[in-house]
Design goal:
DNA-binding; 70% helix; 195 residues; Arc Repressor Mutant, subunit A; Tetracycline Repressor, domain 2; mainly alpha; homotetramer; 2 domains
DNA sequence: GATGAATGAGGCTTCATTCAT
DNA sequence: CATGAATGAAGCCTCATTCAT
């Protein structure tokens, strides 16, 4: 049994180094050293530093999407599905702070700019799930009449900000708080029953 | 009247180049050229590239804070003051997309990591204004009982996400939409007077 | 019957790759791939890349010399033997452009510099044949009184230049032209019997 | 008075190193050291190693062409002009063996391949002079009826071969010999007055 | 103060060669 | 014998910073 697949080692080393020091503070030589391989070895698995960075992004994204799909309460009411999605993502990223940090950096770099809208939840998978919720919600007049991008921002914007604070130790996001926060997000997009 | 203060020229050139190409895509030599000065000249005004970057951040922050203070309806009700703050910031950043882009990059770089909590509204100034609103709001039971960091994220998180979309052209933030969005933010932090 | 001797495959692959891209555009790994063997395998047959290159040179040289010997009209008059030699070489290299390209590259590289005089026809074999012609020719006062190196250059120099043009498609060397050219070469070394 | 223009120093160092060791045996770092400058300095004058190599080629070519033009006996008979051209080139390259070695290497590399026909005498200048001689010579039926490329090869091919031998010390090209050789070249292209 | 040529450390990448399987 | 993953030295180039003018 091989515990160490070199490709995986490189990705992990890159993840750690890049989240800690940024793309430009993570030379290939250092990534190699941290991964326990020679510098040249990285190039057997990744065409270039850019490719390594892009590939790592893709892998993390896949894992995140998988985490969101897993346990998604398809048949349940709108609100419940929405709360699940936000909560699951929040929990995943709290459990994997490096993933969060990496994704954040990626989107704020020339790499991620081409990804635009397909951001944190870019993969068709989870993105569509969310969009379905929004669509259905607006049709049923449960959710405010907003462009999807606005709903998206209201739903996920706070999370990013909160995760940073959590990682930096400014707040502790325990289960109770997470629940309250997801509900607050729901409040921002749900229609006010002015009736 | 000095139309061209070299220091200002350098800052402006740095702003444009860095927002367009990132910190590492903006060599000092190019900044100098764009600013119409010699490379060495920059070092008369800034100790190093890092200092230039930090200084630029500080200047932008100052201007943003000033913009928020200006016209702030001190004596008015809580909700109105809150809406004003969010709306003013949104409007300022829409009017100054480079400022937004720069601040975003800054926070997502090793530079910004040391800034922690003091983010977009880091300067005591505006930050305090907002914190006062939260404090008073919670005391008066108008706003949900949350750690301030959470309230902050609920209030400003969506905005950052929206600004990106706006700058990238995915949505058009006109005055009507801005008003609706700020109200949605308010919905997420205001207490549901179901009692 | 061995259709594929690995050693031969490697030499052929090297020939093709090197003539196409130069010594430095032909990595061992690529030669190996083209030869259908593993990179390490090459080192069973050749001590190093340098040795491979040198060895390939030697093999091509052997084949060229063999081609010249074959059909050489030993008993015939001087002029005829001379014309045969030039013509045969020209025809061989036209038929094997890769051989020509390789030899050319070889001589113009640090490898070939150590080969000095032993150039295209370096191997004692054909070289001697030519030298005999020159010697006899001078003795019989049919050929100009020149150092052998000069006669050699007059005889073969034009050919190299022409082959390049032919390979590059600037001229088409058909049989008629070849005959005329070999005669022109003869003109340059044959004594003008003006006396 | 500046004896050392850094650009010139770099070109000279490159010339020496490349002729001695080939393009790939002449690292930029070494060229820099030999030129007495820092590695990075080269890039102020040349965009890349390729550009340096190409530029050096151009400069040498210019000098050679200038040497050929200088003293060219425009008004004199065809034969004299031809002999002058060959002789002048031969003399120039004997006096500047590094130039010859460099040009040779250049043409036998991927760089020079794109130069094709425009070889040693590529610059319109001298090339045209030669072509004019050929054209006029054929019209006046003084020169054999050959494609220009063939005449060119007959005229210059031997020279290249001879220069190598000279540089390697196999022969000594003194003025007497040079004159005889140029005449031999003339013999190869001039029409045989079979009349 | 201003200039910009010069510096040289450091980054990314290639590739000949080795060696465990 | 053959394999091909791994190695790491070495090459090209960039760019923040300095300093003589």
């Amino acid at each position: 049994m091989k515990t160490s697949d070199k490709r995986t080692d490189v990705l992990q080393a890159a993840l750690e180094l890049i989240t800690e020091r940024g793309f430009h503070g993570a030379p290939m030589a250092e990534i190699a050293k941290k991964a326990g391989v020679a510098a040249g070895t990285i190039y057997r698995y990744f065409e270039s530093k850019d490719m390594l960075i892009t590939e790592l992004h893709r892998e993390l994204e896949d894992r995140i999407v998988a985490a969101l799909r897993d346990g998604y309460p398809s048949g349940r009411p709108l609100r419940e599905r929405f709360l699940y999605l936000i909560g699951a993502l929040l929990r995943y990223l709290i459990a994997h702070p490096l993933h969060f940090r990496y994704m954040e950096q990626y989107f704020n770099s020339p790499y991620g700019i081409s990804l635009h809208r397909d951001r944190l939840l870019g993969k068709p998978g989870s993105h569509d799930i969310l969009m379905d919720i929004f669509k259905q919600g607006m049709e049923e007049r449960v959710i405010k009449e907003f462009p999807k991008a606005v709903l998206f921002s209201l739903a996920f914007g706070p999370m990013i900000s909160l995760l940073r604070d959590h990682i930096l130790g400014f707040i502790v996001l325990d289960d109770t708080l997470i629940e309250q926060i997801t509900e607050a997000c729901w409040d921002s997009i749900k229609r006010n029953n002015t009736a």
